[in-house]
Every structure is written in C-alpha cells, then in structure tokens.
C-alpha cells in the first residue's frame, strides 16, 4: 500500500496519438493496387465492348454514347482516388497500441490498444505474394468496423509485426 | 492424451471429399442462373460438349479441393499458447488465435459430413461475427481432444473465477433475501403502451391517410360527372367527417394495439438479483427469462419521451457483449416502464454508482445544415426534378411540401438540439433523439477501439467526429470540438493501456 499513489493526470502531458509519425505502405504495394484496378477496369470496358459488337440493339445509340463517356471518366476517377488513397494510408505501432490512418476526403485514424486485440491474421493475396507483400489483419471484439487491415507490408516485416503483436497480447495476462 | 498437435497437420484425408462438396456447393450457388439456362436449353446443346464440360468442371473442382486440402494446416503452438490455422491456395491466410481468447469450441456435423463420417470444429472468440477458425473435416476423437486442448486454459480461468464468486455469494445471500427487487406494475405497462412506438403509429396513420385521400379523390372525380356543385359539396363534407373520425378511430386502435402488445410481451416483469447479476423474467403467454451479468454489459441506454417524463416512467435497454450476429438481437435486453428510483438501483448494480454527466460536447451547427440538406434538400430537389422532367402530375401533391418541411424540419432541429456527448471520468454518455431521447451510457474501460475522423475542410474549423467501438456496438458523435476529442482519446487510451480492466 505504501507504493500506492493516485496523482492527478495532466491530460496535456499524455502522449498524443495525433502527433504520431505514420509509416507509409510499401511503395511496391501501389502496383498491387493498380494491377487489381486494371483487372477490374478491363472487365468493365470489355463487357460493354463485347455487347456492342455482338448485340448493338441492346441499347439505343444515345445510351451507348452515355456508357462510352461515363466508363472512362469513372475509370480515371477510380485510378486517381486509389492512388491518393494509397498515399493517405499509414500505420504506426506504439508501445501500447496500433494506429491506422486512411481516407481521402475525411482523415480517419483508428486506434486499437494491444490489450483489446482478439486475434491476428496474416493474409497474402495472389498479386501481393508476387511482390512479396502481405496484409496484417487485427481483430478486436468490437465487430468488423473496429478491425484494422494493414496491406502492403513486406512479408518478413509482417511476420515480425505479427510476432510482436502476439507477444504484446500475451503480456497482458 | 496421445495426439500431438504441436506439428502442423492436415485434416482427415477423407476431408478432400468434404472440400469437394463444399466447393461444388459454393460454385453451384454462384452459377445457378447459368445452370438453370443450361437445363432449359438442354435439348439444343451439343451433348458431347455438355458432358465434356461437366467432366472438366468436376475435375477442376476436385483439383481445387485437393489443393485446398493440401494447403490447410492447423497446429497448437504450446510455447506461445496459440492456435494457428493456415489456409488458401492462391490467397494465403494465416490466423493465430490466442488460446485464452477462445470463448467457444463447437463440434458440428452437417449432412455431408455425416455421410462421410467426419466432424467440423469451430473456434470462436468474442466479438467479430464470423467464426475465427473452422476445421471442416476431422475425426471425432481428434476433435474432442483438440477441443479439450484448446479449452484447457479456459478451465483454469473459470476455476479461479468460481472461487471468487463463491466468496461473494456468501456475502450477498443475506442481503438478497431481504431485498425483493424490481417488479413492473400493470399500470406502468399501460403507460408504456400509450406513450411509446409513436413513430410506427404515425407511419401507419400517414399510409392510412394517403390511401383514404386517394379514394376520396377518385370518388370526387366520379361525382362531378353526374352531380352538380351542391351534391359534391355535401359529399365532401361527409367525406371529411368520415376521414376525421377514422383518424381518431385509427389512433385509438393503434394505442390499443400498442397497449395489448406491451402487456403481452412484458406482463409480470420481475427482476431479481442473484450473485451480483440480474435475473429477468417477463411475458404473458410464454415467459422469457434472461440474465444480465454486469461485467458483460457494454452499452446501457436510458430512453424516455416527453409524455413518459410527465408520467415518471422510462425505458432501459442493455446490450451485452456478443459473439456472432445471431445472438445480437437476443442480447439486447429491454426493461420498460421503470421509475426513476428503479433506474437508479439498476444502474447502481451495473456500474456500482450512478452515472454522472461530465464535460458536455455539442455538435457544430454544420451538422444541422447537413442533416437538413440530406432529409429536406435532396428529397425536395428530387420532387421538383421529377415534377419538371418526368411526371408533372406529382405537383398535385404540392400541398404536402410545407407539411413535410415543417415536420421533418422540427424533427431535425430537435435531434440536433438533443445531440450531446457527456464525458465524465468514469462514464461516457451520448444523448440523442428528437422525440424519444436516449442516453447511451458506456464506461471507458469497455472501449475496444477508437476511430477519429475529420473532413479536410473541417481542419481549420477544428471540428471532427469520433466513434467508440465496444463489444456491444458503436457510439458515434459527429462534428464536435476536435481538440477536446483528441485530448479525450489520449486520456482514454492511457486509461485502457495502463490498466488491465476486464471488459467482459
């Protein structure tokens, strides 16, 4: 009991989560994003082209024109947003919690204290695997909206992070 | 205990068959429209190609399930006390689950698994909706043994738990015997029935009113043909009268239905204390009983509207920690018609003290503008747009516009005015609602994760939003003073990270 103290916390002296420097995702990861997008946009363009070749009577000429205009604009926007989105994503591992920042229009920061982590998963997508990247998924008991997925981390580093996280969770006992 | 789980191992080899059927099922579900077309065009299709195609599909599914089988391994890492599952052919996932986080291990057998004679083992932890780990094909002995090994820790934990409970029990027994807890009277239930569910009643009224009005218009059109002005005047008067009486009648009907529903659902609502948890039982025809464990409670909501305030009653809603979506609805517990004293005693039991409202945060007025834009601006724009370009007929309903403006405007205004976040050392209370005002109460230690969010044009204004994730749902508050929010987040994080408080 002698060691027990209960001093007032000076809230201004607390470590500030908003001043943490975030690590950006691995530069190679942008290729994963772009290849995935290229596949998606490819299908998006190919399907109407095939239809317009074999079944042009499906839509009237005006509708075809609208489709022809909308799809490229949509694709360009999609690519632009994805690139900016990639740049905006960042993560940080502090001593007691993990932070993930994302979002184009709004800057969202999600913080999970290590003693609230339920389990951790390492996911390697097909394309990511080619680039030697992996995704770390951190799950809490707060449902899907409070889980963190950090993509674009080098495989080896991801394994280390996972070990670190598991170690941190362990210590809480 | 012979089986060794310390090395990565595959499922039962017969499991390939299970994988095969599951993959087949998956593909069939995804491709059923094509299959239907094939069946209908069966006669037109070249039989040879058809069967070759079928064989190709089956072979490829077979190969896929074999690969799935090869790539699926699980093992127990006794050193780190983890259960690790590796899966995936092209996309690989490695899931590690801390043994002591495991809540449940279920051994199931679906029809296919029964045919083949294997079992399925699900590992479930708190929180997220899906099962964290599933082994699709495992023999019964192995499953039982794995379950035993997975839950070894759990047993250790619970034995410690029961000891402490036993101690508490003796202390509380005396106290409980002399303490008949809350009973909700029939009168309170009547009051609840009369004062709640207005939203639904009003919606019903609106639907009723519009159908009546349409009928009335049709009727009016017909009457013009064969009757002169006088006749239609009398008709209109009569119809107006019937409409008014029917509205009154409908309102009475809705109230009566509400009352009956409430009484049936909550008749003889009794709350008793047992070992520090609350036992509830209620219901007229089928009595339901549930248990509330204070440590499992995540969000407590106190709800009341103007009439209920005047009558001195309120409604309590308690959300406990869930694992899985199915349980979610079950785990919301409603206690209707409490008095203020009863509320206080329940809250004291849950939190050991009465929640206090501390520092108050208000949303910026931009929140009001935004919600007005969404709920009034956009619909109005849509209405005008449809009227001008598509169906000018809807302008006949223009008289509805001012009514809509006033009603929705008032709702949005009160919703904005009532929206508050109170931050106290031990409690966070979010107040919201236009008519029914609810107060969601959580303790900072129940927070699982925190999301802060700020639109880039709000940076200079220093406003932003916050979402507190708990195991019983989220508490979100928009457009508050961002520097206060950030400061609070830092404080909460500090509190969560320095103590190992039990959130369930």
UniProtKB/TrEMBL annotation, chain A:
Keywords: Membrane, Transmembrane, Transmembrane helix
One Pfam family this sequence matches: bPH_2
InterPro entries: YdbS-like_PH
Keyword Metal-binding: no
Domain YdbS-like PH: 89-164
Transmembrane intervals: 29-51, 63-86
PANTHER family: UPF0699 TRANSMEMBRANE PROTEIN YDBS, UPF0699 TRANSMEMBRANE PROTEIN YDBT
Protein name: PH domain-containing protein
Annotated source species: Flavobacterium petrolei
Automatic annotation (TrEMBL), chain B:
Record's keyword annotation contains Transmembrane helix: yes
Highest taxon of source: Bacteria
Domain YdbS-like PH: 73-146, 417-476
Annotated TM spans: 12-28, 48-67, 198-216, 238-260, 368-390, 396-414
InterPro entries xrefs: UCP026631, YdbS-like_PH
Entry keywords, A to Z: Membrane, Transmembrane, Transmembrane helix
Protein name: YdbS-like PH domain-containing protein
Source species of the chain: Flavobacterium petrolei
């Amino acid at each position: 009991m002698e060691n027990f103290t209960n001093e007032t916390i000076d809230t201004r002296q607390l470590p500030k989560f908003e001043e943490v420097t975030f690590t950006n995702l691995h530069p190679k990861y942008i290729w994963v994003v772009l290849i995935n997008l290229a596949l998606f946009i490819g299908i998006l363009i190919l399907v109407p082209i095939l239809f317009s070749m074999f079944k042009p009577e499906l839509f009237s000429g005006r509708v075809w024109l609208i489709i022809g205009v909308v799809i490229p604009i949509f694709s360009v926007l999609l690519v632009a947003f994805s690139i900016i989105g990639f740049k905006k994503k960042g993560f940080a591992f502090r001593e007691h919690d993990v932070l993930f920042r994302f979002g184009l229009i709004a800057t969202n920061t999600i913080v999970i204290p290590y003693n609230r982590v339920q389990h951790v998963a390492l996911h390697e997508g097909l394309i990511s695997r080619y680039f030697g990247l992996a995704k770390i998924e951190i799950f809490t008991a707060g449902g899907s909206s409070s889980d963190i997925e950090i993509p674009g981390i080098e495989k080896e580093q991801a394994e280390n992070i996972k070990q670190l996280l598991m170690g941190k969770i362990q210590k809480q006992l | 205990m012979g089986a060794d789980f310390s090395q990565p191992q595959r499922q039962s080899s017969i499991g390939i068959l299970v994988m095969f059927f599951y993959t087949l099922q998956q593909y069939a579900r995804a491709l059923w429209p094509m299959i239907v077309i094939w069946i209908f065009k069966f006669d037109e299709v070249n039989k040879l190609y058809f069967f070759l195609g079928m064989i190709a599909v089956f072979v490829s599914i077979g190969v896929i399930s074999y690969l799935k089988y090869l790539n699926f391994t699980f093992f127990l890492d006794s050193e780190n006390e983890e259960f690790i599952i590796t899966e995936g052919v092209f996309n690989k996932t490695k899931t590690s689950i801390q043994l002591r986080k495991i809540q449940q291990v279920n051994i199931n057998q679906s029809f296919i698994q029964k045919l083949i004679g294997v079992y399925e083992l699900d590992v479930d932890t708190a929180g997220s909706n899906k099962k964290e780990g599933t082994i699709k094909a495992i023999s019964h002995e192995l499953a039982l043994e794995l379950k035993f090994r997975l839950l070894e820790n759990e047993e250790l934990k619970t034995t410690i738990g029961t000891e402490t409970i036993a101690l508490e029990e003796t202390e509380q027994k005396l106290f409980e015997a002399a303490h008949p807890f809350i009973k909700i009277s029939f009168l309170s239930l009547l009051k609840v029935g009369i004062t709640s569910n207005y939203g639904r009643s009003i919606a019903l009224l609106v639907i009723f009113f519009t159908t009546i009005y349409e009928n009335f218009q049709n009727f009016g059109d017909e009457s013009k043909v064969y009757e002169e002005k006088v006749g239609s005047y009398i008709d209109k008067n009569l119809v107006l009268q019937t409409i008014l009486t029917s509205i009154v009648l409908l309102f009475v009907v809705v109230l009566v239905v509400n009352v009956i529903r409430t009484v049936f659902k909550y008749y003889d609502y009794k709350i008793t204390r047992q070992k520090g948890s609350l036992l509830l039982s209620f219901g007229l025809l089928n009595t339901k009983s549930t248990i509330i464990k204070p440590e499992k409670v995540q969000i407590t909501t106190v709800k009341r509207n103007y009439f209920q305030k005047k009558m001195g009653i309120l409604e309590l809603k308690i959300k406990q920690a869930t694992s899985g979506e199915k349980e979610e609805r079950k785990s919301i517990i409603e206690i209707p018609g409490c008095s203020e004293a009863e509320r206080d005693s329940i809250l004291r039991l849950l939190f050991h003290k009465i929640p206090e409202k501390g520092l108050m945060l208000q949303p910026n007025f931009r929140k009001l503008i935004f919600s007005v834009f969404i709920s009034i601006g956009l619909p109005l724009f849509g209405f005008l747009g449809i009227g001008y370009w598509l169906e000018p007929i809807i302008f006949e309903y223009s008289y509805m516009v001012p009514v809509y403006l006033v009603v929705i405007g008032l709702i949005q205004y009160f919703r904005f005015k009532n929206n508050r976040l109170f931050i106290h050392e031990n409690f966070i209370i979010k107040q919201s609602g236009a008519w029914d005002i609810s107060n969601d109460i959580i303790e900072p230690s129940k927070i699982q994760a925190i999301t802060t969010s700020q639109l880039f044009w709000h940076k200079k204004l220093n406003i932003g939003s916050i979402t507190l994730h708990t195991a019983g749902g989220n508490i979100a508050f928009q457009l508050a003073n961002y520097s206060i929010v950030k400061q609070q987040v830092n404080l909460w994080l500090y509190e969560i990270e320095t103590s190992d408080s039990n959130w369930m």
